[in-house]
Amino acid sequence: MEKTPLVFKTTHRIRFSDLDPYDHMRTAAYAAYFVDHRMEGLSDNIGWDLKAMEALPFMAWVRRIEIDFVRPALGDQKVTITSFVREFRGPDAHIECRMTDEGGKELAHCIMIVAYVDRATKRAADWTPDAMAQFYED
């Protein structure tokens, strides 16, 4: 039976400090918004705030992020970011992220690869079934 991925959804307002001289969000800021979105989603949807994550037997590290820029995000614009785990492959969780404006038009999307790192060995290891289950609806 196909599992339904848990979708994280957060809303953000583009901050002045993230803008270039043309009132567009700086390229590097997109990565920060996507990563912060995932961290907020972990806390809100799974209960993994920073304190809870310190107690887990593993650490999660963003190994890679590939962003496609569709149209610019502008200063003070309200954006919504959604994401879900598309698949687990060994130590890597492949996460799809999408940023849209208030009208639902896509501004950017990304694939984020998050590695499972065993806290004891400090080495990448396959995601455990218990950890993977957290990212799917009941």
Structure overview:
The chain is an alpha+beta fold and 138 residues long. It has one domain (8-133): Roll (Thiol Ester Dehydrase, Chain A), CATH 3.10.129.10. It has 3 helices and 6 strands, in the order βααβββββα. The longest helix has 20 residues, at 27-46. The radius of gyration is 16 Å and the shape is globular.
Write the CATH homologous superfamily.
Answer: Hotdog Thioesterase
Return the average pLDDT rounded to an integer.
97
Q: Give the amount of beta strand, in percent.
A: 35-45%
Our count of domains comes out at 1
What are the key terms here?
alpha+beta, Thiol Ester Dehydrase, Chain A, single chain, 39% strand, 6-stranded antiparallel sheet, 138 residues
Q: How would the blueprint of this fold be written?
A:
Elements (H helix, E strand, L loop, with lengths): L7 E6 L13 H20 L3 H6 L2 E12 L8 E12 L2 E9 L5 E13 L4 E2 L4 H5 L5
Antiparallel strand pairs: 1-3, 2-5, 3-4, 4-5, 5-6
Short description:
Helix content is 22%, strand content 39%.
